[in-house]
């Protein structure tokens, strides 16, 4: 009988507040959405470095580290794209719950798919950042040649060309990387989120 109560103190898992107190910061998910070539990943990488320099523990999630790992069994069908974002949101939620500033950079082209991510992560922890760089600028940048292939019909359902991108109606932050330098964009983003993550 008594053995059931030998370690009552250890029955309770550490909570989010314990982790945030240790890290001296608040967990949050910064969800970057926008067209391919809009500058999402470039912004997220630069902001992560800037926040790290200021003493914040961050984690960047993007196609490179998600599609080659946890989602390497997914293709690009509509069902797989939804599952891709669902898994990303679940992982981002775990990071935020650990007190980590999480930067998620994914096209996530529809309101429905972003709404799903927000519902999983939680409204209070989800900050939508719309990188609103115009399509013509994104096409000019086209580092990987994806737009050219999409225009030729070599890539099916390419967002912005043969598949729609539904712009967020009321994002927490909207930023056009064609109208400001990277440094200016990062400074603006940091100023807007610093209160949310500061302990």
Describe the structure.
This protein is α/β, with parallel strands linked by helices and 199 residues long. It has helices spanning 16-23, 40-53, 63-66, 78-97, 111-121, 135-141, 146-151, 182-197, and strands at residues 28-33, 58-62, 101-105, 126-131, 173-175. The chain has a five-stranded parallel β-sheet, sandwiched between helices. The longest helix is centred in the middle third of the chain and has 20 residues, at 78-97. The mean pLDDT is 90.
Descriptive keywords:
199 residues; five-stranded parallel beta sheet; 8 helices; globular; nucleotide-binding; P-loop_NTPase
Task: List strands and helices in order, with pairings.
Layout: H1 16-23, E1 28-33, H2 40-53, E2 58-62, H3 63-66, H4 78-97, E3 101-105, H5 111-121, E4 126-131, H6 135-141, H7 146-151, E5 173-175, H8 182-197
Parallel strand pairs: 1-3, 1-4, 2-3, 4-5
Helix pairs in contact: 2-8, 4-5
Short description:
With 199 residues, this protein is an alpha/beta fold. It has helices at residues 16-23, 40-53, 63-66, 78-97, 111-121, 135-141, 146-151, 182-197; strands spanning 28-33, 58-62, 101-105, 126-131, 173-175.
């Amino acid at each position: 009988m008594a053995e059931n109560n030998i370690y009552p103190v250890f029955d309770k898992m550490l909570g989010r507040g314990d982790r945030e107190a240790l890290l001296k910061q608040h967990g949050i998910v910064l969800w970057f959405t926008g067209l391919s070539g809009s500058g999402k990943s470039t912004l997220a990488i630069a902001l992560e470095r800037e926040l790290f320099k200021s003493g914040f523990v961050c984690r960047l999630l993007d196609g490179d580290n998600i599609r080659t790992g946890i989602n390497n069994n997914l293709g690009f069908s509509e069902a797989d794209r939804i599952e891709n974002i669902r898994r990303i949101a679940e992982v981002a939620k775990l990071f935020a719950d650990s007190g980590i500033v999480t930067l998620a950079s994914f096209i996530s082209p529809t309101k429905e798919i972003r709404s799903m991510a927000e519902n999983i992560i939680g409204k209070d922890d989800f900050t939508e950042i719309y990188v609103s760089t115009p399509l013509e600028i994104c096409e000019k940048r086209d580092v990987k040649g994806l737009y050219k292939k999409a225009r030729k019909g070599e890539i099916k359902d390419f967002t912005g060309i043969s598949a729609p991108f539904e712009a967020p109606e009321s994002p927490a932050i909207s930023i056009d990387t064609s109208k400001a330098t990277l440094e200016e964009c990062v400074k603006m983003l940091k100023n807007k989120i610093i209160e949310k993550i500061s302990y």
